[in-house]
């Protein structure tokens, strides 16, 4: 910036740095309060639970002095490390490559875990260089084992966050249960005189505010209205198109036109719906039949 104005000036290429933050709550859990499946965010963050830093032998005075000293510490090894990297660039690149191969293999990392791979690799490479320069006294093998264990724990947490298509559908239905028409299926009654009459069925539950779906309780068929489903997916940061594709491929869902008010005294025209047919054995076997 320049004085007296907001004009910008060239500052060179952007920097890529590893960031470290601390907090009393999990960042992923906070994100999960807004997003049901924060798996993508979890792949960009490595969380570690840190136990009490000081043992019971540390006094309040010692912790205060440590905090004051830490606030004034801005590091002292930067020029030393930078000089080493510039003078040994090819060697540093070789170290990074070898460490990343070992980390990926030991932790079983895939392309999905590429950010974790870089974080841990660069940290360990920096430790190796600092050890070579006699800047730290850490044991590199012990640090490596701890880092691998941390990666494995984060992988397990990410896998636990994975939400199945069935679970997502259940959550949508549960959140909108008061806006779903629950009724038995209907069929046309054809009288012997040739006239056609649609049977009227007493609904088991009627929507209170808006109609988002119809569920035929006797044949376990669910008719989803696309618009409210699309809006809900947007609020939950769920890709609507991918969700519908999963419904089609994994649950056998179909698109069709349906009179959602069929069987009631409300005679509305057909509308586009997404139909999912559940079989009688879903509770025990989880099988789905195509519509």
Q: How do the strands and helices of this protein lay out in sequence?
A:
Layout: H1 27-32, H2 39-42, H3 60-71, H4 78-87, H5 89-107, H6 114-132, H7 140-161, H8 165-175, E1 180-183, E2 188-190, E3 196-198, E4 213-216, E5 221-224, H9 226-235, H10 240-251, E6 254-258, E7 271-278, H11 282-285, E8 288-289
Parallel strand pairs: 1-4
Antiparallel strand pairs: 2-3, 4-5, 5-7, 6-7, 7-8
What are the key terms here?
291 residues; alpha+beta; 2 domains; six-stranded mixed β-sheet; two-stranded antiparallel sheet
Describe this structure in words.
This protein is α+β, with helices and mostly antiparallel strands. The protein folds into 2 domains: 27-161, no CATH class; 165-190 and 197-289, no CATH class. The protein is built from 11 helices and 8 strands. It has helices spanning 27-32, 39-42, 60-71, 78-87, 89-107, 114-132, 140-161, 165-175, 226-235, 240-251, 282-285; strands at 180-183, 188-190, 196-198, 213-216, 221-224, 254-258, 271-278, 288-289. The strands form 2 sheets. Strands 1, 4, 5, 6, 7 and 8 form a 6-stranded mixed β-sheet that branches. A two-stranded antiparallel ribbon has the order 2-3. A hairpin with a 4-residue loop joins strand 4 and strand 5. It is elongated and about 85 Å long. The protein starts with 26 loop residues before the first helix and ends with a strand.
């Amino acid at each position: 910036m320049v004085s007296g104005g907001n004009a910008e000036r060239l500052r060179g290429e952007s920097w890529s740095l590893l960031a470290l933050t601390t907090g009393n709550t999990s960042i992923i859990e906070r994100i999960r309060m807004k997003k049901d499946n924060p798996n993508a965010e979890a792949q960009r963050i490595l969380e570690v639970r840190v136990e009490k830093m000081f043992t019971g032998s540390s006094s309040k005075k010692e912790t205060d002095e440590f905090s004051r000293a830490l606030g004034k510490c801005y590091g002292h090894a930067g020029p030393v490390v930078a000089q080493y990297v510039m003078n040994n660039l090819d060697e540093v690149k070789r170290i990074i490559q070898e460490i990343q191969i070992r980390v990926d293999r030991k932790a079983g990392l895939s392309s999905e875990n590429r950010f974790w791979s870089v974080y841990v690799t660069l940290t360990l490479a920096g430790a190796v260089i600092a050890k070579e320069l006699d800047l730290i006294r850490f044991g590199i093998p012990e640090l490596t084992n701890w880092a691998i264990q941390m990666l494995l724990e984060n992988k397990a947490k990410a896998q636990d966050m994975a939400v199945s298509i069935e679970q997502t559908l259940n959550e949508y239905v549960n959140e909108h249960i008061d806006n779903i028409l629950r009724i038995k299926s209907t069929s046309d009654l054809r009288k012997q005189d040739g006239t056609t009459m649609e049977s009227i069925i007493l609904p088991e539950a009627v929507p209170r505010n808006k109609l988002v779906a119809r569920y035929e309780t006797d044949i376990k068929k669910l008719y989803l209205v696309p618009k409210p489903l699309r809006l809900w997916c947007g609020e939950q940061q769920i890709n609507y198109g991918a969700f519908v594709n999963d419904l089609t491929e994994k649950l056998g869902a179909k698109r069709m036109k349906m009179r959602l008010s069929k069987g009631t005294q409300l005679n509305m025209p057909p509308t586009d719906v997404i139909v999912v047919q559940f079989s009688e054995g879903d509770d025990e076997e989880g099988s789905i039949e195509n519509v």
